[in-house]
Amino acid sequence: MSRKQAINSLLKRADALAEAGFSLGVQISVAPAYLFVTFPKVWADKYNKDNHVMTDPMVIWSFENEGTLRWSDAPDVGDHTVFKEAAAHGLRFGCVCSVKTGQARSICGYARGDREFTESEMAELLQITQDLHDLTAVDPKEQPAEIAEIKQLMAEYQGR
């Protein structure tokens, strides 16, 4: 299986588990090298317009921790109104997964509209996040064709 096929297979599995969508920033050092988003476009646009990334409790947690955390267990930091706004767009339950290797981190917010994620689903989503983190650790100078393929996939995963 090619790198592109492996990444696409993992993204499809994540999309099946997170029926309301996800937002995955991978290989973040200063900014994500790649961003895959399947959240409803109207929500993704609002989140970006309102600059929620700067005050989202889950993002804050993710830069200080590795692992998984349910939205319902969010720490008392940041602006919790983001959860009410997300729920208004069908994202009622969610979790975040954060992984790090060296200086690069990958963070994904996964959401459902119907129920909390189970422990086993969260473990699988964490493994998917780790696998995507590993698969996207590509040197642009040595593998430009693979970078182009990842960017092509990224374009396919930009809001619904």
**Which segments are poorly predicted (pLDDT under 50) over 5 or more consecutive residues?**
none
Name of the top-level CATH class: Alpha Beta
* Secondary structure: helix percent: 40-55%
- How many structural domains? 1
Alpha-carbon distance between the two ends: 27 Å
Which H/E pattern describes the elements?
Answer: HEEHHEHEEHH
Radius of gyration equals: 15 Å
Task: Give a written overview of the molecule.
The protein has one domain (3-152): 2-Layer Sandwich (Beta-Lactamase), CATH 3.30.450.80. It is globular. A hairpin with a 5-residue loop joins strand 1 and strand 2 (34-37). The chain is an alpha+beta fold and 160 residues long. The protein is 44% helix and 21% strand. Strands 2-1-5-4-3 form a five-stranded antiparallel β-sheet, with helices on both faces. Helix 1 (3-17) runs antiparallel to helix 5 (119-135) and helix 1 (3-17) runs parallel beside helix 6. Residues 5-126 form the Transcription factor LuxR-like autoinducer-binding domain. InterPro entries: TF_LuxR_autoind-bd_dom, TF_LuxR_autoind-bd_dom_sf. It holds the Pfam family Autoind_bind. Keywords: DNA-binding, Transcription, Transcription regulation.
Record the SSE blueprint:
Blueprint lengths: L2 H15 L3 E8 L5 E4 L3 H9 L7 H8 L2 E4 L10 H8 L4 E9 L2 E9 L6 H17 L8 H13 L4
Antiparallel strand pairs: 1-2, 1-5, 3-4, 4-5
Helix pairs in contact: 1-5, 1-6
